């Protein structure tokens, strides 16, 4: 009776295993071709194509192209003293430019137009000067009302050739440096002025109130560079020439980013990301190698459990035979299972 029962159990378990194998093969095939269900072919119907509608073409509106903004370029090159005035060599390789020239007093400037492609000398007004007298002069070039070049210097009367001579360092610049987030004054920030016309830099350091003062500088336009440990570098440019004593608005500087990146302790294993049961099942059935290995393992487990069950039943029969005084049946050697 026990043998028949165990055989029945084995047959059912093998049937279940075969059914699992069929499911493991059928499900990937169904997932691989989702949209292959039988569909009926609709009967083609005659389509009437409507006549195309006539869309009136609007009158073309001519586009207005704005004048390009002039960019800075070099047109002023060589200045020269000529008896009672200063002349400047102007080489114009772009559009027409207007050159303003003054001597001694900027309010007495004269204007000259230089055509495109022309190379001419532009003169200042004439003055009466003595030998050895220092003369201050300047030239500015404009294109479409925008300044594109500038030359300012000084000379000693009697010299025929003039090079860009720095003006006396009579100007000064002051201001404050603040924190961009809190508006608090920043102490110890370095402020550097770089002259755009002359090869010279000026440096200062802010005090406890965030203030700085740069005295005895050239009347010129400057690049302003502010640096401070823990802050991003800030660069500004003066629009107009610094003349006399001038004070700039407060310059705000921004703290440098100090974000940290999370790290894993040395030797620590990364924390696995839990997957859903559905994801685990799909990854299994879509991988043929893993699918067959899993099915083979399941069949082996089922057969092993069946063999264990039969051995337990034989042990029970032998115990009952001994209790009833009967000769227990001979022990059958276990059969080898070949998978």
From TrEMBL:
GO molecular function: carbohydrate binding
Alphabetical UniProt keywords: Membrane, Transmembrane, Transmembrane helix
Gene3D superfamilies for the chain: Carboxypeptidase-like, regulatory domain
Transmembrane annotation, as ranges: 292-312
A UniProt-annotated Pfam family: CarboxypepD_reg
Keyword Transmembrane: yes
Location of region: Disordered: 34-69, 319-339
Compositionally biased tracts (Low complexity): 326-339
InterPro entries: Carb-bd-like_fold
Name of the protein in question: Carboxypeptidase regulatory-like domain-containing protein
Upper taxonomic lineage: Archaea, Methanobacteriati, Methanobacteriota, Stenosarchaea group, Methanomicrobia
């Amino acid at each position: 009776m026990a043998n028949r029962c165990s055989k029945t159990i084995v047959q059912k378990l093998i049937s279940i295993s075969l059914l699992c194998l069929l499911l493991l093969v059928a499900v990937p095939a169904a997932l691989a071709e989702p949209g292959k269900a039988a569909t009926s072919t609709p009967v083609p119907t005659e389509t009437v194509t409507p006549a195309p509608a006539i869309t009136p073409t609007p009158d073309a509106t001519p586009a207005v192209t704005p004048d390009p903004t002039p960019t800075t370029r070099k047109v002023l090159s060589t200045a020269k003293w000529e008896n009672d005035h200063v002349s400047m060599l102007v080489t114009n390789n772009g559009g027409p430019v207007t050159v303003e020239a003054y001597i001694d007093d900027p309010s007495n400037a004269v204007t000259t137009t230089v055509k495109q492609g022309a190379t001419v000398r532009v003169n200042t007004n004439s003055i009466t000067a003595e030998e050895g007298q220092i003369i201050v002069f300047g030239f500015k070039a404009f294109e479409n009302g925008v300044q594109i070049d500038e030359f300012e210097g000084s000379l000693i009367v009697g010299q025929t050739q003039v090079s860009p001579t720095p003006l006396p360092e009579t100007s000064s610049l002051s201001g404050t440096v603040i924190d961009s987030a809190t508006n608090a004054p920043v102490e110890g920030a370095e402020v550097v002025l770089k002259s755009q016309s002359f090869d010279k830099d000026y440096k200062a350091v802010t005090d406890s109130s965030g203030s700085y003062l740069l005295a005895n500088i050239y009347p010129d336009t400057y690049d302003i560079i502010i640096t401070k440990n823990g802050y991003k570098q800030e660069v500004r440019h003066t629009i107009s020439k610094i003349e006399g004593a001038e004070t700039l608005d407060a310059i705000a500087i921004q703290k440098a980013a100090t974000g940290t990146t999370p790290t894993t302790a040395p030797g620590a294993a990364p924390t696995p990301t839990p997957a859903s049961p559905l994801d685990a099942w799909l990854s299994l059935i879509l991988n043929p190698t893993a699918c067959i290995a899993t099915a083979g393992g399941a069949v082996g487990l089922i057969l092993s459990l069946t063999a264990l069950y039969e051995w337990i039943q034989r042990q029970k029969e032998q115990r009952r035979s001994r209790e009833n005084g009967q000769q227990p049946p001979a022990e059958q050697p276990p059969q080898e299972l070949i998978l």
